[in-house]
Write a structure and sequence with these properties.
Rossmann fold, alpha/beta, 3-stranded antiparallel beta sheet
Length: 190
């Protein structure tokens, strides 16, 4: 088996994003005249291009532009003190008031649920949203925490020694979802 295997291509990713956009539009009755907008918060790093594409799909379908922001969860991780190296800290950018807002946290892959738990902690430091939902491009179906995606574009169950990596053209030069081998040292093999 190759070290890096394509499991979903660009067309499948685009279809999944369109499907999630349709579900969000239906739940929140998104139109170009909504008075209570929705906000998409992409989790640094790969949740950001996913949130941007989801926002573009919603705008294309409704004429309404969701509010957009970026959420860094590095300091909220439950393994912060257990890591051998300090995490890279990215910027959180939330250019709107989250109080009483319909917020959708967006991330590329839902695995254990630990990242989302950290995102919830980080988000509530900025205020009290009306509703918080979770959109994920791919659900690994291996949750350790009782956290589930409200909107999941794709589902893929991978062995525990495999890492799912989402690549976006914006940040990686290509679109695709890959399965990689995870070695015992904690490094991902190309």
């Amino acid at each position: 088996m190759p070290q890096k295997k394509l499991i979903f291509n660009k067309a499948q990713m685009d279809e999944a994003i369109d499907r999630i956009a349709d579900e969000i539009i239906a739940e929140f009755k998104v139109t170009s005249t909504n008075s209570n907008p929705i906000a998409l918060l992409g989790i640094q790093r790969q949740g950001v291009p996913f949130a941007q594409r989801l926002s573009a799909a919603i705008k294309r379908k409704t004429g309404s532009s969701p509010l957009e922001g970026i959420l860094d969860i590095s300091m909220y991780r439950d393994d912060f003190g257990l890591r051998k190296t300090l995490p890279v800290i990215y910027e959180t950018i939330i250019p709107f008031d989250v109080d009483d807002c319909n917020v959708i946290i967006a991330d590329d892959v839902l695995a254990s649920g630990r990242t989302i738990r950290a995102a919830l902690d980080a988000l509530t430091d900025y205020g009290r949203p009306r509703i918080i939902r979770l959109a994920t491009l791919l659900d690994r179906v291996c949750n350790e925490y009782p956290i589930r995606a409200d909107y999941a574009g794709l589902h893929y169950k991978a062995a525990h020694n495999r890492k799912i990596v989402v690549e976006f053209e914006e940040s990686n030069g290509t679109d695709g979802i890959f399965e990689k081998h995870w070695d015992k040292g904690g490094d991902y093999k190309e």
